[in-house]
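queue> pop job 88
queue> type: inverse folding (structure -> sequence)
queue> payload:
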């Protein structure tokens, strides 16, 4: 028997449950009820997709293949369009657990490029080069990482979704408005330099909710008397949920398509 196995998780205090869509078909009404009752689907977010794009795509797929015209779908933690990796999608009654999941610690693999800065702290805006980085090596980076561990106050990027006077900060920033964001308390639990190939460092970061990895990239660049920006980002973990258990949107669609064909 050939079938596509996808992992869909039932959060009854984090008990994991697998659902298989076998080649001989599956009761569409039962699948519909399952998503209404509430499921967590772990998605590997594509590059340049917004978090809203992913949620909207899930809604469309459930409508087209399962016949669900209206259902609550949400996510437990925004990922910037230029980031990829783990995105936790909740359906139906499981959306009530979003706040709980969002509070969990996150883990990322960040690619930080020294020698250049941007006003968005990532590649959304133009890189301004010319900052020295010849003095930076594995030892200096590891020494710097020790200074960023623990609870601390962090300034969010101007290009962020934080609301100011009813508008997102990035809307103000793109218009050139003069705004100032208040520092927020965060916690960085673990930092590990995975690789440094000048001027690019790959760093594993385990941190609390609300931590901006773009700000971390900018801050460590300043700390090392250089400039730096976030050139790539992958979310690998949220709490007990990991990227290795996630599926692509294409895999999710293939499974639902197979279900629809076998139901006919």
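queue> result:
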């Amino acid at each position: 028997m050939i079938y596509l196995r996808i992992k869909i998780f039932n959060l009854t205090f984090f008990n994991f449950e697998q659902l298989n869509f076998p080649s001989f078909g599956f009761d569409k009404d039962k699948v519909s009820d399952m998503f209404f009752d509430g499921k967590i689907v772990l998605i590997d977010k594509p590059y340049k997709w917004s978090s809203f794009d992913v949620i909207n795509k899930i809604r469309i797929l459930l409508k087209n293949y399962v016949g669900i015209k209206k259902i609550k779908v949400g996510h437990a933690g925004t990922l910037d369009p230029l980031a990829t990796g783990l995105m936790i999608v909740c359906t139906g009654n499981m959306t009530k657990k979003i706040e709980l999941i969002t509070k969990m610690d996150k883990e990322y693999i960040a690619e930080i490029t020294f020698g250049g800065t941007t006003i968005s702290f990532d590649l959304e805006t133009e890189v301004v080069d010319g900052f020295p980085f010849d003095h930076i090596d594995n030892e200096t980076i590891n020494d710097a990482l020790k200074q960023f561990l623990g609870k601390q106050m962090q300034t969010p990027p101007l290009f962020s979704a934080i609301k100011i006077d009813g508008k997102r900060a990035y809307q103000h920033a793109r218009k050139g408005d003069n705004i100032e964001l208040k520092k927020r308390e965060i916690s960085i639990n673990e930092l590990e330099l995975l690789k440094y190939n000048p001027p690019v460092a790959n760093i594993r970061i385990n941190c609390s909710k609300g931590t901006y990895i773009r700000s971390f990239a900018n801050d460590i660049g300043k700390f090392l008397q250089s400039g730096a920006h976030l050139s790539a980002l992958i979310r690998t973990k949220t709490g007990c949920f990991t990227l290795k258990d996630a599926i692509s949107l294409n895999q999710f669609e293939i499974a639902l398509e197979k279900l629809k064909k076998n139901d006919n």
